[in-house]
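Sequence in, structure out. Go.
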Amino acid sequence: MTDQKSISNKELQQDKTYAIVEASGKQFWLQPNRYYDLDRCHGEINDVLTIEKVLLLNDGKDLKLGKPYVKDAKVEIKILEHRRGPKIIVYKMRPKKKTRRKNGHRQELTRVLVQSISIG
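Output:
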């Protein structure tokens, strides 16, 4: 009975753990054991990268806010695959000038798995 309570407490604490990090010029809210699509990262599949630009860290008990970054905080991510986002069509037309331009774009993305969020 106590084992189930301790397991559920650990799971609840892990559910509350999150970090806000800066990666590729954007800010992302990351939680452990979840998948995210970031802009293309340099690295091979199954490489483990460390993000040290952590702006905010919540470990379930304590909230740490960086100025601008939290000291000694890091987020480890594992590269799962390189992929491309959905196609976006850009259409520009100048009325009465017979000028039209159609352009398509697909963003290069990297799917990552957050392995751990830690401090110290």
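Check: DSSP finds one helix and ten strands in the chain. Residues 2-119 form one domain.
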